[in-house]
Amino acid sequence: MITDSRSSNRKLIKRTVCFELSVRESGGQKNILYDGCCVDISPQGICLITDYYFKKGEVLKLLIPAIEVNATTPVFAEVVWSKLENGNYRTGLRFLTPLLDEHPNTYNTKPL
Q: What is the DSSP string of the chain?
């Protein structure tokens, strides 16, 4: 029997999310910008589909669209898993600091 260990409900959304990854190169640290499609989101984490494979344990800086202030909120998230699916990578991330979920519109679930 498969059980779901999630501690909160996820909102299903289809929205572009920008994110940044810091990588080490011979000349030092380099920040690389990517974007992906958000599949679902909760106060504890987010699932993205991207064309980039992220390794478990990597930390990303995500720019989450916030409806309350009509802006994007930067949050940090750790890669929990990543798997190949239909030619892209589906990646599960855990927010290092959970998002507040006091209001139903904490994050913008409207498609672009």
A: ------SS--EEEEEEEEEEEEEEETTEEEEEEEEEEEEEE-SSEEEEEESSPPPTT-EEEEEEEETTTTEEEEEEEEEEEEEEETTEEEEEEEESSPPP-SSTTSS--S--
Confidence (pTM): 0.74
List of domains in the chain? 16-95 (2.40.10.220)
pLDDT per residue, tens digit, the chain (112 aa), is 334 455 567 787 788 888 898 878 787 888 888 899 999 988 889 999 999 999 999 999 988 766 544 556 788 999 999 999 999 999 999 999 887 654 444 554 444 3
